[in-house]
Amino acid sequence: MLRIGLSGGIGAGKSTVSATFGELGGIVVDGDVIAREVVEPGTEGLAKLVDAFGKDILQDDGTLNRPALAAIAFSDEEKRKTLNGIVHPLVGRRREELIAAAAADAVIVEDIPLLVESGMAPMFPLVVIVHAEEDLRVQRLIEYRGFSEEDARARIATQATEEQRRAVADVWLDNAGSPEELVEKARELWHERILPFAHNVHDGRPARPEPVLVPYDSTWPDQARRAVARLNTACRHRAKRIDHIGSTAVPGMDAKDVIDIQVTVGSLEVADELRDALTGAGYVHRQHTADVGKSDARSTVAEFDRTNGEHMWHKRLHCSADPGRPTNVHLRVEGRPNQQFALLFVDWLRANPSAHSDYLALKRRVAQQGHESTDSYAEAKEPWFLDNYRRAWEWADETDWAP
Ligand code: ADP
């Protein structure tokens, strides 16, 4: 199962996208629709509202009189809390029921108008935002949805800004053109990214990135920030820290277009406990694996300093199943030489232009040799690492580096 968060400012065109995903087989869970369902006549929700606010909130036919309820509930902070206390848990429960009933390989599309405002974006393996400029949205809201200009602008002003939406968007769907163009973009996204992502998660298969070196992409840090936020939500207290590591974290460095993230844990048992949570976040388990050990192992933690032994280099690896954003998630134990070196390496390259250019030259040389697999590419870089492991730690000692 893959859960997708779909949002956008009012009038952006979100309904078109969720309808398209629904036609293509997605199970659309629409917050607004559910909020109406849970207070229909005969529901527990409506009975509770009548208990709390009296029969005056009903129309003659027994359905909820929304303006009457709004007039009462929005007059007073306590009453608003009472209303939310009744409706929100019922909406949450219904949402969970719909999700639980879905098939294992289903794509759940959660249509959430206030996804950004409510801070829910990191709960989803993929966040899709529909966007249109404010004036265009206002025009459409007036023309098709009966808003006055004043109301439309007031609603927009209470919502998240474009910048806040961009910060959480894995996919940005621009709806400046015709509705047909938006449908076409949504269909393409579904077939090229969402469905393969869902199948990969279901089968426990990672996305296969192109094993080619590309020039530094200045959006990598933002993409990494979204992965870190998602991983924080998935791992919670079991992660001691989560860092963007590897070449994509070093400004100006060529790299394969794969974001590396390190999740620092207290033990590999904890890493194993995280397996389901990481899979749910779109990162499938790869292997019990180890980094290549160095004979002069170092750590700033006394317990691990100069502690050799193969198990010092063990880790767990999860990889993103999203074909649109290949990501490796390395779970390493706090204080062990491999966990420390991942952090040191990035700081050292960022701070030392000569190390930066040496490493860049090595990467380009190795890439030219045309290694078929990622493993042989990594192996070809290893002799350089054996030398430069010591060089990085010398810099760490000179500068009192701390992770
Ligand atoms: P949202 O669900 O994001 O609040 P809607 O999907 O309801 O916004 O879009 C607002 C209105 O604009 C709707 O009536 C919709 O039919 C219309 N609309 C959406 N996309 C376009 C478009 N590309 N061109 C013209 N009208 C559009």
TrEMBL record:
Pathway(s) served: Cofactor biosynthesis; coenzyme A biosynthesis; CoA from (R)-pantothenate: step 5/5
InterPro entries: Depp_CoAkinase, GrpB/CoaE, NT_sf, P-loop_NTPase
Catalytic activity: 3'-dephospho-CoA + ATP = ADP + CoA + H(+)
Sorted UniProt keywords: ATP-binding, Coenzyme A biosynthesis, Cytoplasm, Kinase, Nucleotide-binding, Transferase
Entry GO MF terms: dephospho-CoA kinase activity
Record SUPFAM superfamilies: Nucleotidyltransferase, P-loop containing nucleoside triphosphate hydrolases
EC numbers, comma separated: 2.7.1.24
Enzyme class: transferase
Keyword Cytoplasm (UniProt): yes
Binding site for ATP: G11, A12, G13, K14, S15, T16
Location in the cell: Cytoplasm
Family according to the record: In the C-terminal section; belongs to the UPF0157 (GrpB) family.
Protein's job: Catalyzes the phosphorylation of the 3'-hydroxyl group of dephosphocoenzyme A to form coenzyme A.
PANTHER family registered for this protein in UniProt: BIFUNCTIONAL COENZYME A SYNTHASE-RELATED (PTHR10695:SF46), DEPHOSPHO-COA KINASE-RELATED (PTHR10695)
Protein name per the record: Dephospho-CoA kinase
GN (gene name): coaE
